[in-house]
Amino acid sequence: MATVQDEVRRLVEPLVTPHGVEVVDVEHGPGLLRISLDNTDRDTPIDLDTITTFSEQISDLLDLHDPVPGRYTLEVSSPGLERPLKTKEQFQRFVGTTVSIKTKSHVDGDRRFTGTLSEATDDHVTVADRTLAYHDIEKAKTVFEWGPTPKRTPSKPQQNKKTKKATTS
Prior knowledge:
Layout: H1 4-16, E1 21-29, E2 32-39, H2 48-65, E3 73-77, H3 88-93, E4 98-103, E5 112-120, E6 124-127, E7 130-133, E8 137-142
Parallel strand pairs: 2-3
Antiparallel strand pairs: 1-2, 4-5, 4-8, 5-6, 6-7
């Protein structure tokens, strides 16, 4: 049986995919349906105009097909700087970046760790020299890395630009 999240994804993906946009995540909780969208080109974050346009279209689509029982608030947004990784395609797109992983409780070793995603195949990922099957991952997300702090140049003391004129008497 399909979940609400699966049904919403099934409806929304054909709407956004032709425009180079992907459904990153669908969350459903009491009174809330949150859909995260992003550009498929990882170097170009999704903009507010695109989110607004798709929010209106998704709302109309959900009104038409009514896949969510009861009343809810629809929230369409970007995944943010640290985006969740849920599918093998998302992992494959972010090979070479820093990710944070939380494994399922049955997996040996540290449950939480961070490292460079060095490999993402059809059935597993390798992060920080640790290989995990997708089904062993509870949560994963990219890690935003701040660039170096810009160097501050010491401010020069203000010089008094007034000069005294020499006077002769």
